[in-house]
């Protein structure tokens, strides 16, 4: 048995147990630092692996932050279809008016009820493809429809008691070479007017029609059988017999006889785009003043005293001054062309439309239209309360002209018809109060920005 002779004591420190300077912080060192002593290329491989790992962690953290931020946002409500309906052919467009849904098909028109999505009537007399529909409820189970087919023809229909009545093709001509195509169709609030923007081979123009909706309602009430079965057919659940198909093809024969009983729309205005401003032929200011009717409004800028030589001299000075910039962009001949597209709105009575005391103004009925053509500085207003003429003026003068500092790019009218927004090509937006007749605000967007469309929310 081993027996300790002396009691247990702490031995005194010796010099060999002292810590060296490079080992004082050994407990704070990273264990991975031992890899620094590895030879090449292991150190380089280790750094690349760690770099990839750190980048991956940063991407993961960034995605987690985006995922958490997305959860905090208000998620949109997902809507699923509650019902569906079958159509004949291909559906191209649709419009809702009252309790009916009108669908433009590859073979004609169809009307469905909103309540049960069942088809109540269809029109396929000509087997034409409908590309656009505009519909409006006139009351007393009567609706007005403007349909544009694949050839650019505008078909005016009246839908009364679940039956289509063809009233007129607005831009139909006998000579095919003179046929014009429809670019845009607009129905005024209430259905009193209709605007059609047409394009020919070399020109474009805007036609404004007055729709005799009151006469249509009276004529429908007097002859309720005139609209029954006109160019339409009622679809039923069972369509299996050949006789049904044959009867559908024979229905247009009786339609043409009764369609003429409804009053036709009246062409009220035919607005053409402004012509390019050229040199003046006036010899004195008095000759130019004779062309002006009165001094109550600004004109389109045609009655001036600038000669063609002055235009040419100004262009030569501009080209010589900014020759370096023009050569950098490339020499392009800028020829002024007549614009072929216009934006127009129907306007209710307001202070910006100076209606004379002899003209009757009805509340809720448009009193004028606003028109601006692409590339034009002028925003033109035309009154609609004009006396009917046997021959419509092909180039009427605007009743009000607003000249802008830059070409008008787009415009919009609020749903309450009180506010008008104008956006010019210099990225300036002006909001007008039509009832008071003055601008509310002018906002300039950042430079080198082009405003293509503007809307009121």
Task: List the topology elements.
Blueprint: H1 42-72, E1 91-97, E2 100-105, E3 109-113, E4 119-123, E5 130-139, E6 142-149, E7 154-160, E8 164-169, E9 181-187, E10 193-199, E11 204-210, H2 213-222, H3 242-259, E12 266-271, H4 285-290, H5 308-321, H6 323-329, E13 342-347, E14 368-373, E15 378-383, E16 400-403, E17 408-413, E18 419-424, E19 428-433, E20 438-444
Antiparallel strand pairs: 1-2, 2-3, 3-4, 5-6, 6-7, 7-8, 9-10, 10-11, 11-12, 13-14, 14-15, 15-16, 17-18, 18-19, 19-20
**Order of strands, widest sheet:** 1-2-3-4
Largest sheet: 4 strands, antiparallel
Instruction: List the secondary-structure elements in sequence, H or E.
Output: HEEEEEEEEEEEHHEHHHEEEEEEEE
Question: Cα distance, first to last residue?
Answer: 102 Å
Low-confidence stretches: 226-260, 331-335
Mean residue pLDDT: 78
Q: Give the assembly state of these chains.
A: single chain
The portion of residues forming beta strands comes to 25-35%
Strands, total number:
20
Structural class: alpha+beta
Give the fraction of residues assigned to helices. Answer: 10-25%
The count of helical stretches stands at 6
Please give a handful of descriptors for the protein shown.
457 residues; 4-stranded antiparallel beta sheet; 6 helices; 19% helix; extended
